[in-house]
Every structure is written in C-alpha cells, then in structure tokens.
Amino acid sequence: MSTLFAASIGLRCIYQRIYQRSKPASLVRSLATMTSEEKQIRYDLCVAHAAFHHFKMDELVWNHVSARYPKDSWLITPGLKHWDEISPSCIIPSSANVTADIIHSSVYSARPDVNAVVHLHTRNAVAVGCLKEGYEGLTQDGSYFHDSVAYHEWEGVSDDPGEGVRIGENIRKVPGCNILVMPNHGFCSLGRSVKEAWIQAFYFEKACETQMVAFAAGEEAPAGVGGRASEMPAKCLRD
Ligand SMILES: [Zn+2]
Question: Are strands 179-182 and 64-68 parallel, antiparallel or unpaired?
Fold first, then answer.
C-alpha cells in the first residue's frame, strides 16, 4: 500500500467525521441547482478547509484553497470566515480577493494539469522558506517533493498582476513541481485534485518541521535521503 493511498484513507475518515459534525441541512436546498461535479468540488473544498483547521494549519480567516471549476475558472475560500465554519455553499468563484486571485490564477495558467491549489503560511514551511538552503528533503515522506519544489521570491503582498506572470514563469522552471515555496511568505501545494493538494500540503509541512528540528539539533548539514533512496519513495508516493 503506498503512503499516499494510506494517507487518502486516513483523510477520508477525517473528512467523514468533520462533514458529519458540520453538515447543515439548509445547504441541501442551496446546492440543489448545482451539477453533481460542482457539488463534489465544493464538498471537497469545505472538508479540506475543516481538515486544515483540525490540524491547526489554518491562519484565522486568511490563506486559501481552490479547485478548478469550471474549466477556465475556479472555486475558492470565501475569506472572513474561520475555516471550520466554511460550508459547501459559501465557497465562492474567483475574483473576490485580489491576492488570492493573482496566486491561484498564475498556477492554473502555468499548469493545465493542476486542478487544485492550497496556499498556506504554516510555521515550518515558512521557516524553511527563510533558509538559504531552502527545502532539503531529509526524510522518506519528504521525498515526495524530490526535484518537485519551485521557488518564487517575495515581492511584498501579492497585489500586482505582474507578479502572477512571474509566479507562472517560476513554476514552469521546475516541470511537474508539486510545491511552490514562497520565501518569507508561505507555500502552495499543486494537486491533480483537492485531496492530492491537501495531502501534499500536510506532508510538506511535516517534512519542513523535521528539517527545522534536525537543523536546530546543531548539525550543519543533516544527512538527507538524496542519493540514497529519494527517487524510489517519490515514485511510490506519487503512483
Ligand atoms: Zn499568502
């Protein structure tokens, strides 16, 4: 059983538990006119937000999670709501938040294979983004991101449409990347689905936590899995 598959099962259990707890009956009516595809995407986004909240990876009402729908647009975090209060019906179409729009639209434009984007400011990923070395990939779980991390240097609050072009260029420099580190800011997880983007974000933050702990132990250059086993776990995790 691959780690990703096992993680999917664990995530599904969390999804079900959180959804059962927060399922509001009134939403059934408001979602009645939507296609089954849109309802599923809204459901996935709603539970992704709640699951990030469950693991304390959210940041009050900030940060955002989106999914491509329909083809040339996307659905995204509403803002001004705590992530455990977000319901399927309050997920919004693009264009409500300039910063979110610039970041997410640049990813979708640069990568037609990406259908979901998670953007977080979790502590360990931000800390790794502040290091000169950037992400090191010291662990088996961290190998999922072997040769798959792109970087986009901080330009201040992302409210300049020109930054979207530069984000896209940086993403394309690492073909097939699944993480975009935004130094001094946060990171994005790029997934083929909401669940994949969620799992990558979870493991990236975990791998960054390990990196920070290993560096804090005082070793100048902790031994990573690079050159030993990095490519094998990466393949097995992605399949
Ligand atoms: Zn941000």
Answer: unpaired
Distance CA 63, CA 121 (A): 7
Among 45, 213, 55, 193, CA closest to 142: 213
Report which of 48, 71, 47 is spatially closest to residue 120, judged by C-alpha positions: 48
**Which domains, from first to last, does the chain contain?**
3-238 (3.40.225.10)
pLDDT tens for the chain, residues 1 to 239: 444 545 555 666 655 555 555 444 444 446 778 899 999 999 999 999 999 999 999 998 889 999 999 888 999 999 888 999 999 988 998 766 788 999 999 999 999 999 999 999 999 999 999 999 899 988 888 888 999 999 999 998 888 889 999 999 999 999 999 999 999 999 999 999 999 999 999 999 999 999 999 888 876 666 665 544 455 455 545 55
Give 158 Cα–ligand 1 centroid separation in angstroms: 8
Q: How far is the CA of 45 from the centre of ligand 1 (A)?
A: 18
Ligand 1 centroid to 129 CA: how many Å?
13
Determine the distance separating the centroid of ligand 1 and the alpha carbon of 184, expressed in angstroms.
Answer: 10
d(CA 43, CA 37) in angstroms, rounded, equals: 10
- 119 CA from centroid of ligand 1 (Å): 6
Residue 139 vs residues 10, 43, 149, 224, 229: alpha-carbon distances, Å: 20, 32, 15, 7, 10
Biggest alpha carbon–alpha carbon distance for the chain:
58
- Give the span between the Cα atoms of 209 and 225, in whole angstroms: 16
pTM as predicted = 0.83
